[in-house]
Design a protein that fits this description.
The protein is of the alpha/beta class. It is built from 13 helices and 17 strands. The protein folds into two domains: 3-77 and 359-398, Urease, subunit C, domain 1 (Roll); 80-352, TIM Barrel, CATH 3.20.20.140. Bound molecules: N-(iminomethyl)-L-glutamic acid and fe (iii) ion. N-(iminomethyl)-L-glutamic acid (NIG) is lined by residues 85, 109-110, 113, 210, 238, 241, 286, 312, 314-317.
């Protein structure tokens, strides 16, 4: 059954072929206002069988089986949250409190969640992850990537990925998150690239490694990513989160889809990202929740790097599931224009997941969208903290 969504005051398509200015005064791509969002005013969209079959000015819309008028609201492509850790149990609010009163974030806290996750039943883990995905949906997220990484043994990592895979096809094997307690690091890497990878690969699309001091060094990261790639998983990397290090370099070397965090990036790292086409996925909610310095997104954009924004929702370094919050931080703290930030949170996320069916709205895209209780996408950053997502559609169904 086809549905005509009409009365859209401002439709963001991210469709470069539309060539319309992003907003009054925001015309040229690459200008300070940033991205061309392919905006159509007084627009309509026709959805059929989960996909967009028509989009354009409402005056020219074809008939459909059902008509829905959104009353002048803005519609944007659903957010693509390309980095999240949702399969876990336990709570680390006390660790957050300690950070807010002066302690730094360290990778060691992950072990607290590992203990709680291992002790939880499948149903508890499933329930927690489902609740978080529902929370994301209410905030306009229509695609989410979910990592393992709080199991850290063969059974537990495979279990995490099985549960993640019930919720999304974008599942990531992160057995190389940290070395579990009382384990020899070299022996653990052997396990990750051997038995653990064999057990996890059937449930995963991606392989990831936390390449950082206190987690895995460059050689271990290369080994994990190459073994994952040989098993058919595409690489992505937790890179340069806690300091300057080799993570971005390794991501570029192995042709990862994305280098995530990039909180500390040298000019050489930026050139490397731009030249290799590796997406830089910036995670401003983590800087917010760890009191680390925000990366300057302008440096990345000016160097020609494709930038995505994601939440990195996890119980340790930042427990926000909100893409609108991440987007507002990106504008306020990382010097992105509102247009660049919206693009990064939608089309950028799709690029980081190497998806061409999401992150935009037009003929052939999936019908993934958010209806905003606002006349323009600008309100996402202009009204931070306000629940502006009125409704979310995923593959043609209201979520
Ligand atoms: O992306 N950096 C590694 N992993 C997560 C944090 C996980 C945790 O602290 O539980 C991150 O920040
Ligand atoms: Fe992460």
């Amino acid at each position: 059954m086809s549905v005509l969504l009409t009365g859209i005051g401002e439709l963001v398509t991210n469709d470069p072929d539309r060539g319309a200015p992003a907003a009054p005064g925001e015309s040229a791509p690459g200008s300070s206002a940033g991205r061309d969002l392919g905006i159509v005013r007084e627009a309509a969209v026709v959805v059929d069988h989960g996909a967009v079959v028509w989009a354009g000015p409402a005056a020219g819309a074809p008939a459909a089986d059902e008509v829905r008028d959104v009353g002048g609201r803005a519609v944007v492509p659903g957010f693509v949250d390309s980095h999240a850790h949702l399969v876990f149990a336990g709570d680390r609010a006390v660790e957050f409190e300690a950070r807010m009163t002066g302690r730094p974030y360290t990778a060691g806290g992950i072990r607290t969640t590992v203990a709680a996750t291992r002790a939880a039943s499948d149903d508890e883990l499933r329930g927690n992850a489902r609740r978080l995905v529902a929370e994301m949906r209410r905030q306009g997220t229509t695609t989410v990537e979910i990592k393992s990484g709080y199991g850290l043994d063969v059974e537990q990592e495979a279990r995490s990925l099985r549960i993640a895979h019930e919720l999304t096809p974008e599942t990531t094997f992160l057995g190389a998150h940290v070395v579990p307690p009382d384990t020899d690091p070299a022996a653990y890497v052997d396990l990750v690239v051997g038995e653990m990878l064999d057990a996890c690969a059937p449930h995963a699309r991606w392989v990831d490694v936390f390449c950082e001091r206190g987690a895995f060094d460059a050689d271990a990261a290369r080994r994990v990513l190459r073994a994952g790639a040989a098993a058919g998983l595409m690489p992505r990397v937790h890179a340069n989160q806690l300091g300057h290090g080799p993570g971005i370099e390794v991501a570029c070397e192995v042709g990862a889809a994305s280098a995530d965090h990039c909180t500390f990036a040298s000019d050489a790292d930026l050139r490397n990202l731009a030249d290799s086409g590796v997406v830089a996925t910036l995670l401003p909610s983590i800087e917010f929740s760890t009191r680390q310095p925000y990366p300057d997104a302008r440096r990345f954009l000016d160097a020609g790097v494709t930038v995505a924004i994601a939440t990195d929702c996890n119980p340790g370094s930042g427990f926000s599931s909100s893409m609108p919050f991440a987007l507002a931080l990106a504008v306020r703290e990382m010097r992105m224009s509102p247009a660049e930030a919206l693009w990064a949170a939608t089309a950028g996320g799709a690029a980081a997941l190497r998806r061409d069916d999401v992150g935009w709205l037009g003929v052939g895209s999936r019908a993934d969208l958010a209806v905003l209780d606002a006349p323009s996408y600008l309100h996402l950053a202009y009204r931070p903290g306000v629940p502006l997502v009125a409704e979310t559609m995923v593959a043609g169904s209201w979520a």
